[in-house]
Amino acid sequence: MRATGVLSGRRGRVAAGLLSACLVLTACSPQRPHRPAGAKRSAAAAATAPTPVGSAASAAASVAASAAAPDVSRYYRQRLDWRPCREAASFRCASVTVPLDYTRPEHGDIRLAVVRHPATGPRAARLGSLLLNPGGPGVSAVDDVLSFADGFSPALRAAYDLVGVDPRGVGRSDPVDCGTGTSPAALEAEEDAVGPGSGFALIAGACARSAGRLLPHVGTPDAARDMDVVRALLGDDRLGFLGYSYGSYLGATYAELFPSRVGRMVLDGAVDPGMDAFRATLGMARGYQVAWEAFAADCVPRPGCPVGGSLRDAGRVLDDLVAELDEASREGDGRGVPATGDDLLTAVTSALATPAWGGLRSLLREVQAGDAATRRLLLGTDDAGGPGEQSLAAINCLSSALGPRSTDAQTRAAVPEFRRAAPQFGAYYAGFLPMCAHWPARPTQVPHRVSARGAPPILVVGTTRDPATPYDQARALARQLSSGRLLTWDGDGHTAYQQGSRCVDTAVDDYFLHGRLPADGTVCR
Predict the structure, then answer these.
(1) Which of 85, 193, 236, 262 fits a disulfide with 91 by CB distance 3.0 to 4.6 angstroms?
(2) How far apart are CA 277 and CA 225, in angstroms?
């Protein structure tokens, strides 16, 4: 799992160590050599405004809304000025202009960064463009394609242009910049003075002051509409798409808005858009508990296992290490902010999501031995409230399915339920519940089922012990989508494609290249 830029609430402080943890719903992206998606290319780009179709809207309402929608056709008629990317001449970079507000395009524009790795095969055999979203939200798709395009199979690279678009508010596309510059120590002091959740309020206030004009317009539906503009400018009749984690939510939103424009779409590490953020956060706590127990079961028979000789021992060992670090941080040593138990849990959740079990065993041994360098590393290096974290909060908090808004009182009341669901991780994840309680922009999306009626088959991929987006969410999304097909990997870690399963990789590649879905009920082991 790559670091993702997570706005991270902690029991004891808000801090940047959670950049590498999978947070509230989908704050992580898989680490691997990488990805695709497919669509047939038309002779010319569409030059008309989109006609969004929501799953809950009647046909009559959709027609009326379309007739009343502002004219944004000019955005579909712009020309892309492709130039060699400064990072690598074999890639092409461009920018796309889109309206800040699709309902009021006269209020100004923003620009999106786009990268393309041209297909390597004969022109007659090419299948179109493959848009990638690696998750987050807050992870740069441009950087992802630049870094991992060579990880796709030769057949996919021959057939598709690999395309990354930084969503609005992210990376190189007018990123949310709240200008906080706030250190973990300052945020800890704020929480000590005011109370739990105040670090979130501090960052929310800074974002309101510095990025207030942008904040209401970085939601997932706007990003999905932007993707449709990019699709048309690339010359594709249908959108080919591969979305991981949060990217699956973005893809499902696109399919809901534009079902007739969906091409070959794969949603891996899927998010259930019908689940509210409280239940999703609780599910994540439970998911990491399951992942921890799977790690412990693998560790216990090994010589020198750092978590003892049983699952019961493993929970106790982790609890004791967390308590030890918390005690040391309270005592202090006069040499700066010491690592806390939450810093350790951050590192543990990151390793469980990757999964990096060998590294986790080594980490636990070093922490047990009191290794000072290891304990310093737990703190991380980035300030809390950095740009990636701000983007994540800004996007999550516009959706009631992604950004929890519990009050401090509601959070305290929820802790026992979280502890029962996840003895080692429950209180840790309950600390994220106030993340959006003070956010200055109100949600524009509510939890709802997405059917995307009329879309062609959409392949949903779920991992049975995925801690960040638990498997039941993939099953739920596949059932909701009118054309959904579920592919299951009986495995560990967050997401499945290119994570080591030849069965999964073959099934996904076969769908992208030939349009052949795996048989209903397929389970890869």
Answers:
(1) 85
(2) 23
